[in-house]
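How a chain folds remains the central question behind the approach discussed here. In the encoding step, the backbone of a single protein was reduced to a row of integers, each denoting a local shape. We regard such an encoding as a compact summary of how the chain folds. The sequence in question and its structure tokens are set out directly beneath this paragraph:

___
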Amino acid sequence: MDNKYRFLARIIIEAKSPLNIGSGNKGIKTDSLVLRDVNGIPFIPGTTIAGLLRHTLGKDEEELMGSQEIGSPLIITEARMINSDGRVLDGILSQEELNSDFLRHFRQFPIRQHAKIGDRGVTVKGGKFDEEIVIKGSRFCFEMELLSADADDADFKELLNTLLSDTFRIGSGSRSGFGEIEVLGHQCQYKTIDMTDKKQKEWYLEKSSSLSEEWKDAEVLTLQKPQVQEWTTYELELKPVDFLLFGSGFGNDKADMTFVRETFIDWSGEMAQVKNRERVLLIPASSVKGALSHRTAFHFNKLVHKYADMLTDEEQIRDYIGKNNVAVKALFGSEGDSVGEKILNKKRGNVLMSDIIEEAPLSTKVLNHVSIDRFTGGAIDGALFNEEILYAKGHTYNLKLMVNHAAFTEDELVKTAFEDALKDLCSSMLPLGGGVNRGNGCFEGTIKRNGELIYGNN
């Protein structure tokens, strides 16, 4: 027996921000559906986890994932969702279980609305889309197994440690606030098996493949969080000046437009609780990302002395905005260029951030708006509408951003432009969300870079 050792780990993870585990299919209500199992509840394919692990490994460690010539010695199961009582939901569930108070929240998933805004401040043609997401706080369980000829499990432990990294995200939209996870180490289990030992071999053969079956005589998995050397961390402490409006794309019986609300799962008690969406504040990271992208382009163009009145036509303007702007492409990536049937020059973003989702006492206000005919002084027909907005003055929200150093090596001015954009955000010069031209979305705050205060007063 060449690989007589088996290293097994049972991993429990919790979504610290919503997960976007897409099925690749569209629905009647949304452009992207969440991947569901036979019970209609979300799960994470083992191939997704394996692909993410392969991406994080260095070339010297890729043999753990196999190659075209050698099969992978690593086995990864699907990640199955955990019920409110901590039990893993694996296998076909009864109708009674599916109708429980907890699982009924997973019949319909929240839908996030997205709109790509151009340099004119309006939605780009074809830039409107939406997608289903798995709510924050959802927990999943999966198992990993490594076949080895060596009794030393250091490589396997190092592989498991990558799951603890602040930069490890699961699913798509990782650069738009989705996919942040936490490994619940005190609930994870570990087992080393020597197949030449009769007792250990029997334990291995008797172990069920079902994730709902608990392990026996296993030790608690001890992991060590890896140091993130190649990333710069920015921590923003934001205080709203007054009103916020991050639009949901929907109305209700009170207003034509409402601010976005979502539920999340709280595990602080003995049983998991789904928090009432009416008491949950959400600041989407995608809104922050879009605003920072535009303002970074502005500051970079200013630093290199490229101004609108110097550019004579649209072709020249396009060379300095969006994905063609050096700073924007370095920091936030590019969706690439269409060349025939191919898309070339794709680039992944170098900025990581997460949604702000927390329970808070919310104070709302419905504002009425009307467009006035400048000749008659009366309301224009059909131009009356109202919005439900959030009054958040007095609250403090913490936003964390991580920037890969690779972005700052593109041009020495990229870092300056990005930090100038952050300073605008913390000085009410860069409002977030909707209705910003009506005074919504202004913040004041401080900025720390790697723990050191670089803007504002504590």
